[in-house]
Design a protein that fits this description.
By secondary structure, this protein is an alpha+beta fold. The chain folds into two domains: 137 residues, no CATH class; 207 residues, Collagenase (Catalytic Domain) (3-Layer(aba) Sandwich). The chain is built from eight helices and 24 strands. The strands form six sheets. The protein has a ten-stranded antiparallel β-sheet, with no helix packed on it. A hairpin with a 4-residue loop joins strand 15 and strand 16. The longest helix is centred in the middle third of the chain and has 32 residues. The radius of gyration is 22 Å and the shape is globular. About 2% of the residues have low confidence.
């Protein structure tokens, strides 16, 4: 996308799925491989920004090695920054619709409701479109009309139905309710999405698994809404399309999943199925059909992680899309794990087989964690495959379940 402004040209470059990957504003070039990392070039001066999250809440910024803590309000707006030793560095206040109030400043571009402000053009980038806080309106029309029976929703430029104290718009496509107990639209603790059976489940273990399902659901939500809108116009779906949260999207794609605490270890279970080489197996769990995940006895509840749960959920997702996920893993992607980060728990199984590589990749996609260092190119390639395939896969999963 090319824009003209008083300072010259602005060029925005997007990937095949509509994600902004590069911006050029006068002499400033910024690269956005993912939400955790940015590289900015101003003439020959390079600055590296790394962001840290708890759930979906951005809590810290590292600028060329210097860490700054980010303070936010109930809408996710950056209201202050604090140095590594706890000294208040900057504060920022906003009007209800996001204009800066007073003389405050911020060391990060992520400001009102946690969205990135492009100061040079005076607009906020809301992923699907740009927002003008001075006008309190988007500058492009919404592509999705939620609840067509509600007349306010036909104003496709309005911001969160003119109710910015209670709602945000995380992607520029749909508004979400905020309030006590939520951080950037993600309820804390996570909602009860998963069913549990068997003995020994702890609250902590359930929360980690529900957290993985919740994160998965939020990542799927914009794809689910687009698919439901298409199905509605095709006359094959007459249900609601105004989904409000990740739990709803997750249940539409997966149905109701169950995690079962199995009495056998991994090796015992697969030996009972006649696998002669199972005596050496040490897996923590497995997908046991389209709706069930086994947690084996060779790992305690305290050892479970959200990343492990996301990996097993990814196996279930592959079953719901007719194994198209594993079948998409070909060429160099099948020969290595380059681009996937082991240190963040994204490699739950290092076997170079298509279904395990896909589960690692789908887990990485759900958590949006990819290699941004040595194998950054490979990480972008794997992410692009997931992004470009997700709309079709979500369509298959919803059709299969409904």
């Amino acid at each position: 996308m090319l824009l003209d402004w008083e300072g010259g040209e602005i060029v925005y470059t997007y990937d095949g799925d509509g994600n902004l990957v590069k911006s050029v504003i006068d002499n400033k070039t910024t690269y956005y491989p993912n939400q955790y990392y940015e590289k900015r070039m101003v003439d020959a001066q390079q600055t590296i920004y790394k962001y840290y999250f708890v759930g979906s809440a951005r809590i810290a910024l590292r600028e060329n090695g210097t860490i700054t803590w980010l303070l936010s309000d109930h809408l996710g707006s950056t209201s202050g920054t604090v140095s590594a030793v706890g000294v208040l560095v900057s504060t920022m206040k906003y009007t209800a619709f996001g204009e800066k109030r007073g003389t405050g400043s911020s060391t990060t571009d992520y400001r009102y409701t946690g969205q990135r402000e492009e100061e040079e053009i005076g607009l906020y980038f809301y992923k699907a479109r740009f927002y003008d806080a001075a006008l309190a309106r988007f500058v492009q029309a919404d592509t999705i009309v939620l609840e067509p029976g509600e007349s306010q929703n036909w104003d496709r430029y309005s911001y969160v139905r003119s109710n910015p104290m209670n709602f945000t718009d995380p992607t520029g496509m749909y508004y979400e309710e905020n309030g006590p107990g939520k951080i950037n639209n993600t309820p804390i603790p996570p909602p009860n999405i998963i069913n549990f059976s068997g003995s020994g489940w702890t609250v902590g273990a359930k929360n980690k698994i529900n957290n993985a399902a919740n994160i998965y659901g939020w990542r799927l939500l914009p794809y689910v809404i687009r698919v439901l809108q298409q199905f509605f116009h095709m006359g094959v779906y007459d249900g609601p399309i105004n989904l409000k949260n990740g739990a709803q999207a997750f249940n539409l794609v997966f149905g109701k999943l169950e995690f079962v605490s199995h009495t056998n270890s991994c090796s015992e279970y697969f030996t009972s199925l006649g696998d002669e080489g199972a005596s050496t197996y040490n897996c923590y769990g497995c997908a046991a059909g389209r709706q069930t995940v086994f947690k084996f006895s060779n790992i305690g509840m305290s050892g479970l992680t959200s990343e492990w749960a996301g990996h097993e959920i990814s196996h279930i997702f592959d079953l719901h899309i007719g194994l198209q996920g594993r079948n998409s893993i070909t060429g160099w992607m099948l020969d290595s794990l380059e681009g996937i980060i082991r240190s963040h728990g994204m490699i739950q199984n290092s076997s170079l087989v298509d279904y395990e590589i896909f589960a690692n990749m789908a887990d990485s996609w759900a958590f949006n964690i990819w290699d941004t260092d040595k194998y950054a190119y490979e990480g972008l390639e794997r992410k692009s495959l997931m992004d470009n395939s997700m709309a079709l896969w979500v369509s298959l999963a919803i059709l299969g379940n409904h």
